Amino acid sequence: METVNIKINGADYTVPAGITILEAARAANIEIPTLCYMKDINEIGACRICVVEVKGERSMPAACVYAVREGIEITTTNQKIQNSRRTNLELILSTHNKKCLSCVRNQNCELQKLSRDFGIEDEDRFKGVMPESEYDKTAPHMYRDSSKCVLCRRCSAVCEKVQGVGVIGANERGYKTRIGCAFDMGLGEVSCVGCGQCIVACPTGALSENDQTAAVWDAISDPSKHVVVQTAPSIRFAAGESFGMPAGTNVEGRMVSALRRLGFDAVFDTDFGADLTVMEETAEFLDRVQNGGVLPLITSCSPGWIKYCEHNYPELIPNLSSCKSPMAMMGAITKTWYAEKKGIDPKDIFSVAIMPCTAKKLEVSKGSNATDYPDVDVSLTTREFARMVQKAGIDFVNLPDEHFDNPLAESSGAGTIFGATGGVMEAALRTAAELVTGKELENPDFTEVRGTKGIKEAVYKVGEYDVKVAVASGLANAAQILDKVKQDGGGYHMIEIMACPGGCVCGGGQPIRDSAVQSFTDLKTIRAKTVYDDDRNDNLRKSHKNQSIQKLYDEFLEKPGSHKSHKLLHTKHTARSKHEF
User: Fold this and answer.
1) What CA–CA distance (Å, rounded) separates 312 from 193?
2) Residue 369: per-residue pLDDT
């Protein structure tokens, strides 16, 4: 690796050639503030908060876009630099809606933190032109408030570069510039897939999920309602960050304890639904392989991915698994099998899901195609769950560990790994291999499909079959795989796609971390490691070995792929125009 010798604040450093001043300073444990910057995604030097001095330069360059060179001498802080950064920050604040106390991002806002760090006292030193009120709540999963937008373009960069969707961007020019959809359409009128990655990228409260906690509080307060809640696999590995705990901390027991204290009548584990999904999806896959069905089979657990496919690859809809997501399967079983066992009228069950995903709100809005009741009534993000806990005054960190409620509690490690990219594929392979061969796997680990790479491929021997699989996370990566399938099939038998980079552990509904953490901390790897640690330590690691799942089929569903299973646990997908929601 080529290196260069540089000076930062008078000290000598040797750093890789070609990196930016911002990266070099971070390597030297020197923090330079930023606002618009996201590593490899949005490096545009627009906000000018990261300006520094470079010896010999007439003006102060933005550290995030200025590459180091041999002998360069950099000053990252002095009174002139601080005054410049402060002025730039005040100019941004001059057109910002500063109603911080009622903002969803209060105390977790990068603009607010910068204002505090720079000691901004006179917020109105500059009189800017406030943007016209533009409050877009046309989509069921999120809203957009232009009065809090700082034009950093992080949201549009993620939407275009990471997700390959590109439905938001800069409209007009100069002081009239604002972020929105083409022709000023609402998010509910375009082909937004609901992934929520724009929300995670936003440094302020300009973007947020539609908060539905009020409906949950109302249901909990209604004595006629039996209120149940399920939690997705990845929630337990990220929720602790909302309460100041280290990234990747497993808070399963405390999470269950908190939900009981919020007043839920039963707390269920979506990992059970993940095991159920493995049973149905594996049966569907083997049927297609053995009976000449459409291949490759593409998994259907991620609603953001499904909507992306419906808009952009409608010709591949026959390849999609007809299985509902684990959340929807859990909801369907809750309002049928569970309701029968408990003697509860399904209309009196209010079903809540805590999900890492804003697209789950879209999925819930579709209702159910099997019963007179929606599978799930409300889907909350991890962030909404945290706000409920905080509102209730619950000391989350010091809660005792408690366990999920039966009969929807038992789950396998295979269900747990649904939370990380490659997990759905690995869980399916564990079951498919044993069902095809009738033999116990000596090693249930399919490590080639693990890891946080955007695209992974592998070939496995399953009985007499050489099964070629692919895994993609992040929709721009998915497009590369899908283009191969469109061209010649790619030789794949099964493909797993997750809308969010790294899978559900980094879903659009997970705790929001600032750009420094997102840029320089590998959250995907940290959270995923805990997922696989939990699986490795589980005594039960295969979905088909789950005795509660076996009991469900014996008592109610008959067998995977049965008529009853298809009615309750499967769905249909619909082609959509690129210009409709």
Assistant:
1) 11
2) 60
* Cα distances (angstroms) measured from residue 495 to each of 130, 190, 328, 488: 48, 27, 21, 15
- Would you say the C-alpha torsion 395, 398, 402, 404 has a positive or negative sign? positive
Number of residues that make up the chain: 581
Q: Report the 10 Å Cβ neighbour count for 314.
A: 15
Phi, psi of 324 (to 5 degrees): -70, 170
Interacting residues of 86 by C-beta distance below 8 A, sequence separation 6+: 118, 120
How far apart, in whole angstroms, are the C-alpha atoms of residue 275 and residue 561?
14
For residue 269, give the 3-state DSSP assignment.
strand
Q: Which of 390, 255, 266 has its CA nearest to residue 333?
A: 266
The answer to whether 350 and 377 are in contact (CB under 8 A) is yes
Burial class (CB in 10 A: 0-12, 13-18, 19+), 495: buried
d(CA 421, CA 497): 8
Question: Given this model, what pLDDT does residue 370 score?
Answer: 61
Whether 33 contacts 64, CB under 8 Å: no
d(CA 180, CA 545): 49
**CA dist., res. 23 & res. 64, Å (int):** 8
Neighbours of 70 (CB within 10 A): 10
- pLDDT for residue 112: 96
Mean of pLDDT over the chain: 95
